[in-house]
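Example noted here:
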Amino acid sequence: MNNLFRAKARWICFFGVKLLLAQNFSGGFNFTLPANDSTTQTYLPAFPAQTIRPAVFVEVRDGHFALAGQRIRFFGTNIVGAGAFPMPEVAPKLAGNLRKLGFNLVRFHHLDNPWGTGSLFEPNSDTRHLNPVTLDRFERLVHELKRNGIYANINLHCSRTFRPEDGVIDADSLLDFGKGINLFDPYLLSLQKEYARQLLTHVNPYTGLALVDDPVMALVEIVNENSLYRYWREERLKSRTEGGILTRHYQAELDSLWISFLRKKYSSTSDLEQAWRATPGSSGHPDLITDGGFEQFPAGTYWQLEQHSPASAVMVTDGQTVYEGAHSLRVVVLQTDGVGWHLQVKYTGLTLQKDSLYTITFAARADSERVADLAFIKDSSPWTYFTGLRVALRPVWQTFQFSFKAPGDYSNDGRLSFNIGLQKGSYWFDAIHFSQVNVEGLRAGESLEDGRVARLAYQECLQFSDQRVRDQSAFYLELQNHFFDEMRRYLKEDLGVRVPITGTNWNIGVADLAVQARLDYIDNHAYWDHPQFPHEPWSATDWQINNTAMTNDENGGTIAGLFGGVPQTGKPFTVSEYNHPFPNRYQSEGPLFITAYGGFHDIDGLMFFDHLGGYSSWNVDFIDGYFDLHRNAVMLSLLPSCARAFREGYFRPSEQVLRVSFHPDDVLLAPKNDPNAWYGYFPVPQKLALQQAVRINNFVADQHFDPHGLPPVGSWPYVTDTDELVWRKDLLIVNTPRFIGLTGNLAQMEDQAVGSLTMIGATDRATLTWVSLDDLPLRQARKSLVTVASRIQNRNMQWDGLNTIHDDWGSSPTAIFPITVYLSLQIAADSLQVYPLDTSGAEKGAYLTVFPDDSGRFNIILNQYLSPTLWFGIAAMGGSAQLPEESVEGIPEPGLRRIFPNPFNVSATVEYFLPQTAEVRISIYDLRGRLVNTYTDNAGYGVRRFVWNGKCQDGRIAGAGIYLIELAYAGQRNYRKCVLLR
């Protein structure tokens, strides 16, 4: 066997390198799943059409969603914008197809969008009246979904773009669909209530019920991705001219609310000053930066340009574009390689004292919208990163301030740098100051009576007293609490909504989670390798992706951020947006990751983003965007098996749930506890989610959260406490009794057992799932489905390097890269019948009969070069787990029996059994499907033998590798593999 696996490893390595280096591929096969198909097939999981029961509403029971006391898990998708308003003839087909794929929930997203005619609002009109045409189409689709047992998750505010006709002040100047502002402005609150009433209380003519009275509505989401606290954290609660979201009117309104908040709590400026008292000490410290205005010394004297080839830049002192004084520093980035720190302007030799507070202020601009990363690191090996800040630069000067507490003593060993290696162009820096500071309280000139008390910027919080930071945090959180409390009250009490309601899904650390704890369930979003737009948001041509595999991310990819300390005890948890967007060539890993870890974390709903964004292309075999899955056969093919496993609870939930509680100061002082974490302040290491579940109990604990004593988090392999999920470098393995999943570099799994499946080898990376179709363990299953999905592309799709296709999406049809996998299955059977399935899931052509080997295992080759399909149905025949060798000749099933010796060096004997005299053709293929040799024979009943001498049809000696032997007779075909060694 050692020689066999060495030969196989050589073959897989050769093809693996060749295939993975290619961006586009040739020789792909088309496998377009019919968009209007709702048929039930023998070898696909069955999701019968069952009309939703009347008067049985989704509720929360024992911390999960339930119907009439029985738990329900939602396996869902998003339908976005115009996709929610299909033509009448399309609606029943779309609903039936969604059911067949395994969905039992649709999240209706961006119904309120401002683009095109696919909106609940009429174009070029106000947003206070619903469009009767699109409303009718939406309600017809809801009716069809209901008939198919598919529930609705209704989103209220997503992309509504307020107009002057709505009576909204500065409507034309509101950014991000008015987000942030709509959480504190009372008039915008009234408009959101009005819209909810119009949508939820309108009687659907097809169901005879309004959504508030129809159990088809399972969930309600108040606002999508909206958090005042997050806007504060991102330094956007300031004027438009300063890079914020506030017009002068809304800035004055927010300032007024802040003063009112303080006056309710403090009676006078003296009272406020006493509460906010600062620590004693001198107020002045020397500037640690020499010539931060670039007035005395030329560029390169104190500030140095570090370059890592091929990235390159030039640095000069500029006397034309300045913030103050006569000069600034200009850096022109000529070439980038996608790594920010490969180009950096650095100041070295800084000295810091442990636990002392430092503040950096600087002015910066760029020739276009760009980003720069401020970083403070150790200036010698191992160059430890301490803290930093990403800033968004614009073609105007902006000032920035950033404070941090020194993590240790560093004598002439600190480095301050601006990392600018992500985007080409010009950057200017000026007025850079870096000094130690004392904690402040009330600033000179601030007066409560006069209404002059500034709102703190998030990055300023470290330099202010705890109580001032508590009050500033509490102010924004109380505004959010008021908004969500009032909207929930209005929906429940005034409109009569009976189903669970969530607030939003833009959770930045414990602060936002404390707000969402007041709602009925917790929701979250995540994407792996979301497209980036370096210059213009959502540009059709100027975008890029990393094009990397999440299996290779040792930090836990999306999983750590989704589940690491986010779910809460006693509340359902959902992920209402998830995707590994196209054209990432590793995207097939996404469905398995979110399904398996979602099951392990015992979540209550997951929704892929998205299924359909426009009904006009609902049945076109062409992928024309990052997110839509409805024409992406690689992603769609995995959904039935994943849906079956998730909805039926095939994954064992975490057995060692870590429950944590937080003190109010853990929330209110989050800006001081960890101001630089990308996802906000999470005191629980989020990578714990790779090994056990973490739940928040409450936010009112008597003691501060103490991270000491938490379970250790190591590195690969990450193993869940159930032992069902193992994530090692470049491979995720999911092993449950009724579902097995593998994704990543399958070639590294040579001869590795996963439950009843042993992966013998594979020709490339892919995602493979094997699911029981009769609810029995796979070892006893009479019917099961294997799905093998690699990657997909459009015809003539043009890549520019590895990171973008700009707008060169190509054309129809799509093509899937074929691979071959070698499996050994352990199933209680006398033989297996393996059926290639067509795009509807029906049996396609002749099946392959497989008998067990001497160890009782069934060795199967799934070759997409020869059988261009993503689905293979498996039927277990008989009941014995092992077939004795002496009983083979008595079996009536014809076909290939064995090849011996195997592997071989010179020749191999191929043995087959025929039930009748027939003309036989024996063909030998390599693993690319190319014919190597062929032989014919007029054979009679019984066991026959044929010897292959290892030669090609032209007499050449065949090379070492794995070959397929095909036996064809009387319209029947079956296959076995052999390995030729040289």
Remarks:
- Residues 303-436 form a domain with the Jelly Rolls fold (CATH 2.60.120.260).
